[in-house]
Amino acid sequence: MGMSVTISVATEQDAEQIFRLQYLCFQSEAALYGNYRIDPLVQTLDSVRQEVGTDCVFVARLGEEVVGSVRGKVTEDGAAAIGKLCVHPRLQGHGIGARLLHTAETTLAEQRGAKRFRLVAGHRSEGNLRLYRRVGYQTVGRAKGADGVEMIVLEKAAGEYAQTA
């Protein structure tokens, strides 16, 4: 292809591409659970725009195309909730997700004071769980999503950057 993937802060102009990418990427998760009402598939474009304006949102770009995204925000307990990590299916398995995750963690710790990072993954989402464990996350519990999907809660302390590739 001749172009490299770059990671940058999302802008308001990226919201629609993030919205479409999210819808594409989470189809496989929906199929895995037989549930097409999972949050990333029912989120509105206005809600994505709001998150881009208030949360730490990063995109991976290949040229002008947004091919990956992740969001994070510091919660009331001082942990940073990271979510909706997605990479275009044609580019998965090349370390883009790990790069997005690392960028979000670094920014949330350095600019927003996060001491811990927390994320959730569906209990059947083995690929996602493998990535999260490879970069240092450990299972701390389980929860049921509003959509009824059983989720595994994972955390790690800020500064614990495991191998990202």
Radius of gyration: 15 Å
Q: Largest sheet, order of strands side by side?
A: 1-2-3-4-5-7-6
CATH superfamily of the domain at 5-115: Gcn5-related N-acetyltransferase (GNAT)
What's the CATH first level of the domain at 5-115?
Alpha Beta
Percentage of residues in strands: 25-35%
Q: Choose one word for the global shape.
A: globular
CATH topology of the domain at 5-115: Aminopeptidase
Biggest β-sheet description: 7 strands, mixed
Number of strands: 7
- Helix % is 25-40%
CATH architecture of the domain at 5-115: 3-Layer(aba) Sandwich
Uncertain stretches: none
Terminus-to-terminus distance: 21 Å
**Helices and strands: which structural class?**
alpha+beta
How many helices does DSSP assign? 6
Order of helices and strands: EHHHHEEEHEHEE
Mean pLDDT across all amino acids: 92
